[in-house]
Amino acid sequence: NVIYNGFDKKRIKSIDRTAKREELGVDTKYLVTMCGRVEVAKDWDSFIQLAEKVESCRDDVTFLAVGGGNQLEYFRNIICDKGLRRIRFIGRRDDVEEILESTDISLLFTNNEKHAEGVSNSIMESMAVRVPVIATEGGGTPEIITDGFDGYVIQPGDIDKAYFLLSEMLDNEIKRNRMASNAKKTIDERFNLTRMAEEYIQLYRKIIQ
Predict the structure, then answer these.
(1) pLDDT single digits (tens) 111-170
(2) What is the phi/psi pair of residue 4, to 5°?
(3) Single pTM value for the model
(4) Residue 106 near residue 100, CB atoms below 8 Å
């Protein structure tokens, strides 16, 4: 059996979502966030393509890329050249959990040719604060997300599917809230820090017997 990393709920602090969004300069109804290193391990091209597709038909969504890395300026230049107004790469931040608490939907697109995703902290942090995630297939992601229940798992590079699912969740508040509640329940029940510590203790006891 695999013993996963537990999530410490003490890391979650109640914040003023409106104030946080104002601080971030987000003035749209919805906020979609992707957290990760801005390097080849993550599929930032798909993130930009999705944001561009959404921006072409609606103006109520801001896309926020959170993280530093050696491709940060490269992608900033791309969105500048494309004239995209609703997507921002804000670099490395020390308030990631607060940003996620202010988010409606979280994304995690992985470049599977360059990186094997483990049990992603970004996914667990998002779900713990009631934010459903759309993530690409691969690595440990399907072990966290139950597709269609507490988030969605899509094939890498499937921008059309990501667009459909994102739009559906944004436009269906009841469904989005249900998935948000399910996401938190998944972390509380399956990735509880106390439970994981107890499983380690039991494992050690078996080893030393």
Answers:
(1) 877 766 666 889 999 999 999 999 999 888 998 999 999 999 999 999 999 999 999 999
(2) -80, 165
(3) 0.86
(4) yes
Any idea what the Cα angle at residue 49 is, between residues 44 and 150, rounded to 5°? 75
Q: Distance between alpha carbon 41 and the CA centroid of its chain, in Å?
A: 15
Nearest CA to 71 out of 96, 48, 52, 100 is that of 48
Q: In the chain, which ranges are continuous DSSP H helix?
A: 17-24, 44-55, 72-82, 96-101, 121-128, 141-144, 159-171, 173-190, 193-208
The pair of three-digit structure tokens given for residue 29, joined into one six-digit string: 């109804």
How many helices (H) and strands (E) would you count in the chain?
9, 6
Name the 3-class secondary structure at 152: strand
Say which residue, 1 or 18, is predicted with more confidence. Answer: 18
What are the φ/ψ torsions at residue 90 (nearest 5 degrees)? Answer: -100, 0
- Largest CA-CA distance found in the chain, in angstroms, rounded: 64
Contact 160/139 with Cβ under 8 angstroms?
A: no
Partners of 192 in the β-ladder = 7
pLDDT 10s digits, 28-82: 999 999 999 999 999 999 999 999 999 999 999 999 999 999 999 999 999 999 9
- By the 10 Å C-beta count (0-12 exposed, 13-18 middle, 19+ buried), 84 is classed as middle
Beta carbons within 10 angstroms of residue 140's beta carbon: 15
